[in-house]
What does this fold into?
Amino acid sequence: MNSWRLNLSYIAVIIVGVACCLQTGVFFAVDLYPILLCLSIVCFIIVVPILNKRNRGQWHVPNLLMKVILICPFVIMGLYLFHVFMGPLSLQGTVVEFMKWGLYSHFAILAYSIGCIDKGKIVLRVGWHMMGALLTSSALLTVYGVIDIPFSIIHTDNLGISATGARLAGLLQYPNTFAAIMAAFLLERLFALAPLVQRHPSARSVLLGIMPLLPYTAALLLSESRGAWLAAGFAAAAGLVLERRRLTPPLLLAAAPVACAAVLYRQLTDVQLAPPLGPGLMWLAGLWAGSVLAGLGLWRLWQSRHSLVSAHAITSLIIGAALWTIGVLAVWTTVQERLTANFGTVSARGIIYRDAWRLVQQSPWIGQGGYTWRWSYPAIQSQPYVGSEVHNGYLDMLLNTGLLGIIIVMILLLAIGTTLLKNNRVLLPSYLVLVLHSAVDFDWSYSLSWILLFWLMAWGVAARAMSDDYSEPNVEPIVYRHPRSRIIPVAMIGLWLVTTVGLTTLALRGEMGARLYRQASHTIHKSSSQALLRASLQWNPANVETALALVQRASTEQERIQVLRNSLIYAPNHPRLVWEMSKAYGAVGHINLYIEWLNKGLSLDPYNVNKWSQSLETIYQLSQTQRHEGNIYESRLLAETGTEMYLKYQELLEEANQHEGYRNDRDFKLTDAATNWGNKLAMLAQTQ
It folds into this structure.
């Protein structure tokens, strides 16, 4: 690869990683568009020169595992593309997932190409630590009030959610995923200490090696994520088993930083993550400096031993064990009740998983496209809980792409894990914590989680490329020895080019639509706002949020109906679109269409109290209007429909209350207003 293209790849990979951190981990589609647009343009610039025959051999991938890793994202893109043409539940969600996997596929190729270069390991290591420093420093500086990041600290009085009343969420704005990612950075540093000390480093190198341990540990603890702590424990145990011959270095060097991080955790939780600025920063600086120096001193004491049973060795081990014990006890005494007694969120996820499994059975082989759970859960939920995310990455993938998709994902993860096991075991615990925690939360809804997995893969490749017995194969004879052998590299290059052009187009349309939507949101004049929203829909017609915003600003009911019709083409069962359509037909007096869409709207969101009350009120008012106009049949039809609807409302409430461990997060109940309108409808039906 030419030097300018190589430098461009370096810059692109680091920028993508940092941008993913800054853009809330790319949870929202609007954060995805600019990142994907820039990456696609870079890939297009890089891939076009490869069309020259002399350059194709540079891109041959001789390793079977790497072929699997690089091809799997394209296969998943193909599954989502299939759903686009077959008509998914949500075209918007399916296209967004297609674009996300396009981001992963192109990032994986660039990261792999960097990992095969001698300097690649340095670039990947620098980029990794830049991301870790950015996530940790921004979170801790928010705690001390130096900067203000919205939703970076979650406050709650629910002991089932937080034992201390506050949880750190950082730039990701979600504590659990933030904790899992912090655990990945922490475990990388922890297990990198063993190979570090084997090289007989200077004191400066050791200090730099253990310096990130305290902030990473503090961020992990302050997130108060039980799932992330458990996943980190399993991953660390697996790493210690693999590194059993060199356990002492990481445990001794990390003892003081971990203990000081636990002390810092106690101090911050006592004030619900709102310490005084000056004293708080001084306390942080003192603990941080003391932990680093103590870690170095403890290691020096261990190094000065004459044997494993010498006084220095025993003393260092005792001090290290004492520090680890202090750290564990400091945390345990704070969160003991939540760890042992409050399992409300665990039981809630059990209910979600059961409902999601019923949804899987509707299309088990290929799924129903992107956003399947997000837009289907109000209709499928067995109890009125709140859960627009399924809290399980594997189950979410199963809902979206079926068994075919989850099998491909498992093959991809297995290939990445095998690559790390063969080439760089130090990175395996970080990989494991990301993979394990995704089974209990929606980490995969954050593109940053997948970016880190592919980053670890490339880092593992870089470790192999830096090894003494590694030599780059002579790819020219392999690729062009036979005429047929040219087909595969040419096809792969063509596939990359086509997807690059397609992703660039989609990202551009998405970004333009999002910008126009933001402009409309800040525009005071109604006519200007309408024009901007219409222009936004021209760029991205499948965007439901834009369509709903235009419906709210529409001048006439007929205009609302037309906008809703167009949007329902792309999301035929979206609860809000269907509900707005029923309201629009009710406003224009189309009785039959109103009843039809009303029944559909209630079936798609049966545990919405406001919809039941509003429906009964609207039906009563329409019935009275029809009666005054002399339309007795229509009035009676509406009154009877409303009475039946009220009875269904009561039956649904009775069924819900019979569930064992009933969760009523949505406050589903029989309201006084609904009872009033229901009684009036019954009386009206009897008098006609």
